[in-house]
């Protein structure tokens, strides 16, 4: 426990009200002295329990749930009743429960949000409330907010517009800020900006709990988001704001608008880029090749794909390539094929990844080359998918990769599991176990010809908890490209396969909290070097991080007069 948690907490709340406060509730773990002091006598069964006894019971109940959705609902219920117990349980069973509170099950939970809704969490801010945002922020049940994850629900994983149901994502991401990064749940706030939905099934669903109208116009939207950002600045001027699962048309423009004036980042653009670059650097080390020698093909030229391209270019420039030469190594393919300078329908952020067809060796067609044509022409070492298009990496595509490269790196990163471009089992089978594979959602290890082939989960969840921990503990004012690159390097250096020549490409989830500390230290140093955080020594950074990290332990309570 950090020093603060070791000290008794002085409270004026008492009686049933205390049991209804998820951040403070200890349930059967209230001691005799506390039950007397807080008027809890008779409200609980007589036996006093430790948090681990409570955890054992909760795990028994969890195991009795017969579907992943039932398990998700069960865990969310605990979270809404007793946050300390929730985090104790998840921490103890992280590998088993992360797929339940995060991808893939959180995707289904967003789709069924209104059907499974139980109790209030976070803030819902609807467009028609745009002049009362300050009041709404003051209504939050938590006061000292340091990390906000906000969505408008328009691009939830690869599942499209989920309207108000998108709230499942900020809730899940913030749970990981605590489990993986050690940020206290008292300091986190999920926010859903309800600007309507263009999902016809939701608009017609009698259970749908969001605003029942199509998404508002772009002009209204921009004003609304701006009012939200300004209100957050007034209420919590130092909070880190993570933009999550915004649609392509809004994700980059919002980031560009606020990144220099707010402490914010877009997880799908920047967090994904950081984890993908880390994974690719580790894979290149495993292959024994310089990253700058490996042509990279990215399928899905949206927020994630173009974000990855941009950070990969910066990363291989560090190996001595000019920006032009680095860009020439990255091929981004969208629905209409390779993104080229000839395309007339590109979004602003896609222009930086456009290839000049004149440089495209051997190409004579009058249309943009497709995936197989690019692979056969470029002979890439790496293929990465962020298209949300299940099965896009067909046997022919994967075998073409393998034909040109003995050990192809193939990363189907789309979420949730059902959107994956190819399953790891298929990729390993088609490449005789020679590919290096990682996916966005969790997949079981693959057994092939007597070998066990591990499948790492290349997900931004490796990155954002460490970024958050660095920002909160070292008081960073911005999230810079160098901070993101620092997180990539720290993660790449922790790759078991790259270090030991065996094991998984990315570190195990069991050590994620320690890994987040390592990532946070490197990120904090980059923040200091960039002049966006107060200068501190490495020792001081370590102390700040330790003092910030919250543990799922109960504190002693002492009663004070209200
Ligand atoms: N593993 C991870 O950590 C992360 C994974 N993702 C996943 O990546 C996917 C994309 O996310 P965003 O880039 O934010 O979405 P986006 O909507 O901005 O981009 C998706 C792009 O894929 C393109 N696309 C669709 N079908 C295609 C096809 N058949 N061939 C080529 N391109 C095609 C679309 O035109 C679009 O430009 C989602 O499934 C998301 O869950 C996103 C962020 C993090
Ligand atoms: C992981 C994540 O952020 C996504 O799939 O959108
Ligand atoms: Mg996301």
Automatic annotation (TrEMBL):
Q: Which InterPro entries match?
A: Aminoacid_DH-like_N_sf, Malic_enzyme_CS, Malic_N_dom, Malic_N_dom_sf, Malic_NAD-bd, Malic_OxRdtase, NAD(P)-bd_dom_sf
User: What Gene3D superfamilies does the record point to?
Assistant: Malic enzyme, N-terminal domain, NAD(P)-binding Rossmann-like Domain
Return the protein name.
Answer: NAD-dependent malic enzyme
* NCBIfam families recorded: PRK13529.1
Q: Which UniProt keywords apply?
A: Metal-binding, NAD, Oxidoreductase
Spans traversing the lipid bilayer: none
- Where is the Malic enzyme NAD-binding domain positioned along the sequence? 269-528
Cofactor(s) required, per the database record: Mn(2+)
In this protein, which residues make up the domain named Malic enzyme N-terminal? 79-259
> What species was this sequence derived from?
Paraglaciecola agarilytica NO2
- Which Pfam families does the UniProt entry name for this protein? malic, Malic_M
Q: Which family does it belong to?
A: Belongs to the malic enzymes family.
Domain of life of the source: Bacteria
């Amino acid at each position: 426990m950090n020093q603060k948690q070791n000290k008794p907490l002085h409270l004026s709340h008492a009686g049933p009200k205390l049991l209804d406060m998820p951040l403070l509730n200890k349930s059967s773990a209230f001691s005799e002295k506390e039950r007397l002091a807080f008027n809890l006598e008779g409200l609980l069964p007589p036996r006093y329990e430790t948090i681990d006894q409570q955890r054992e019971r909760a795990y028994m109940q969890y195991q009795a749930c017969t579907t992943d959705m039932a398990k998700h609902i069960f865990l969310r219920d605990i979270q809404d009743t007793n946050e300390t117990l929730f985090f104790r349980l998840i921490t103890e069973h992280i590998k088993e429960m992360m797929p339940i509170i995060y991808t893939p099950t959180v995707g289904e939970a967003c789709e069924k949000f209104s059907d499974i809704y139980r109790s209030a969490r976070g803030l819902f801010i609807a467009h028609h409330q745009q002049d009362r945002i300050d009041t709404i922020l003051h209504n939050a049940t938590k006061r000292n907010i340091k990390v906000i994850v906000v969505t408008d629900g328009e691009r939830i994983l690869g599942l499209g517009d989920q309207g108000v149901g998108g709230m499942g994502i900020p809730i899940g991401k913030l749970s990981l800020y605590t489990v993986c990064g050690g940020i206290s749940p008292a300091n986190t706030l999920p926010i859903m900006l309800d600007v309507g939905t263009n999902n016809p099934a939701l608009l017609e669903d009698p259970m749908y709990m969001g605003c029942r109208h199509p998404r508002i116009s772009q002009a209204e939207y921009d004003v609304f988001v701006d009012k939200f950002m300004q209100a957050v600045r007034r209420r919590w001027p130092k909070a880190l704001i993570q933009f999550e699962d915004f649609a392509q048309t809004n994700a980059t423009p919002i980031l560009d608008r606020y990144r220099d004036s707010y402490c914010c980042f877009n997880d799908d653009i920047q967090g994904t880029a950081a984890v993908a670059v880390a994974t690719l650097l580790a894979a290149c080390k495993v292959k024994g090749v310089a990253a700058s020698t490996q042509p990279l093909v990215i399928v899905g030229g949206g927020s994630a794909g173009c974000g990855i391209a941009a950070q990969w270019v910066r990363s291989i420039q560090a190996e001595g390539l000019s920006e032009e030469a680095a860009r020439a190594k990255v091929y981004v393919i969208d629905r209409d094929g390779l993104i080229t300078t000839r395309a007339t329908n590109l979004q602003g952020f896609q222009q930086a990844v456009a290839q000049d067809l004149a440089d495209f060796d051997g190409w004579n067609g009058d249309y943009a080359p497709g995936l197989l044509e690019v692979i056969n022409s470029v002979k890439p070492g790496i293929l990465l998918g962020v298209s949300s298009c299940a099965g896009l990496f067909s046997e022919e595509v994967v075998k073409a990769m393998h034909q040109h490269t003995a050990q192809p790196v193939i990363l189907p990163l789309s979420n949730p599991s059902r959107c994956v471009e190819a399953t790891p089992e298929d990729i390993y089978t088609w490449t005789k176990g020679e590919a290096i594979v990682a996916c966005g959602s969790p997949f079981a290890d693959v057994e092939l010809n007597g070998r066990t082939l591990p499948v790492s989960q290349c997900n931004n969840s490796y990155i954002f908890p460490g970024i958050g921990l660095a920002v909160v503990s070292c008081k960073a004012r911005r999230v810079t490209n160098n901070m993101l690159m620092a997180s990539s390097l720290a993660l790449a250096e922790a790759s078991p396969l790259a270090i030991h020549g065996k094991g998984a490409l990315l570190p195990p989830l069991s050590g994620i909290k320690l890994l987040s500390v390592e990532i946070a230290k490197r990120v904090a140093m980059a923040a200091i070097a960039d002049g966006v955080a107060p200068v501190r020594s490495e020792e001081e950074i370590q102390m700040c991080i330790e003092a910030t990290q919250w543990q799922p332990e109960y504190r002693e309570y002492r009663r004070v007069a209200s």
